[in-house]
Amino acid sequence: MKHSLLLFLVLSTLPLSARADETISLFDGKSLAGWTDKKGGEPSKGWVVEDGALFRKEGGGDIYTKDEYGDFELSLEWKVAPKANSGIKYRMHRYANGSVLGPEYQVLDDKGHSNGKDPKTSAGSAYDLLAPSDDKELKSVGEWNSTKIVARGTKIEHWLNGKMILAFDTAGPEYTKAVAKSKFKDLDKFAQNPKGRIMLQDHGDQAWFRKITLKKLD
After folding, report:
1. Which CATH architecture has domain 22-216?
2. What average pLDDT does the segment 74-80 reach?
3. Does the pTM of the predicted model rise above 0.85?
4. Could you tell me if 120 and 128 are in contact, meaning their C-beta atoms sit under 8 angstroms apart?
5. What's the DSSP call for residue 177?
6. Domain coordinates of the chain in residue numbers?
7. pLDDT of 17 over the 70 cut
8. Which of these, 138, 99, 104, 136, lies nearest to 121 by C-alpha position?
């Protein structure tokens, strides 16, 4: 009994990020379980499982996690076809006009796609808002990239292949100015949603995602 009590006290003093039972798998490597379309229904047939990866094979729309998440550390691997564009969006919010939007970690073939010419729309950027660091290390097309997105309150981090390439505060002046200059300028409180679903984007190109895990930080 004493040992059990001691173990409980030790675990209860650990930071949330250190609790192993807070880490969950968002993709079982075999099915689309846990993923939905925009309205919460079954994902499109354009998304399939191939060699242990979620594969956007053909058109059918974006896919979303069934559940919403607030503060988290999302880890996954991705690759794209030549000239392909995709994205990982998080803390999605439904606006009055029916659109569902959130900040986006850009997934891209920088060399083959025109968006790669603008740092603010290149791989790893907060799409159309903030550019990643110049020394980011992006793998060649067809190779797997490792990505991590950390969200704690208004503080966001984008990681690529083991290196933090972008950090920003959605409540800070730099981010506010970036939104004012972006395509999102007319959206009230863009990216201020404290929690929401995670989305993998169908941008008309082939893209693969695997090893998708999430550690709850709240």
Report:
1. Sandwich (2.60)
2. 98
3. yes
4. yes
5. H
6. 22-216
7. no
8. 104
